[in-house]
Amino acid sequence: MRKFWILLVFLFTACSAPTSSPVTTPTAIPTTPPPATPASTDPVVTPGSIAQPGDDITNTTLGAMAASAAQTLNVPVDQVKLLSLEPHEWPDGCLGLAVEGEICTQAIVPGFLATFDTPKGKVYFHTNQEMSYYRMAKTPPVTSSGAEDVLIWKRSGGIAGICEELHIRSDGSYTFVTCTGAALSQGSLAAADWAYVQKQIRRFATFDWTYELPAGAADMFQDSYSLSGHGTEIPLPEEQVKLNDWLGQLAIRLKNQPTSPQGSRPLCSTTTGV
Asked: Domain boundary at 137, 164, 185, which?
């Protein structure tokens, strides 16, 4: 009987003893961030990566430009040669070649200027950066010489509803554009013309002039101009009209002559002028 109780106590003690659980070591969470997505490695579009003078451009956008120029000028397409392709920023969505009455987005458009040589002279194509859209011009884009405007003349209205501006700068250069920015002509004034402008600047103080249209004259031209003078005189009314008449005749001559290179005339002249 005593052996029975000893055995019973032993079994009870064995069953109630605590059991040990294995210790689990926590796995460390990596703190290194995942690698960054690599930046785009697309090549930058440059003129040289598109085409260079002498390349075969037959089945390209430049080839389509050449074909368009050939058709417009009525010359063989194989005589239209690419001269240069240069990056250029255009002032609006019409690539700086808006036509009268056209509404253009007013934002800078990066693109290219493609220059072609033809039997009838150079032609210029304005394109966007993708070269999916282009327009042709027969004169190079208007560029500023960095000089300041000293005389700005504007004509608008008439039966045709024109709107043109002539800007004459302090170095004798000029740009003649439509009011939407399309180039009509640019270059340097002839020596006699520049001397006449200088004479007005030296004599008169700064003033503005606007032609007052008579009642019912809706089809007449509306002329105006601003002269930034260095003199002290205020021109008489007839002198203001005379200067406007001269500017109108000058504008007609500049519009009908080929674009001349800027800087082809000395900046100073001893000619006394008109």
From this structure: 137
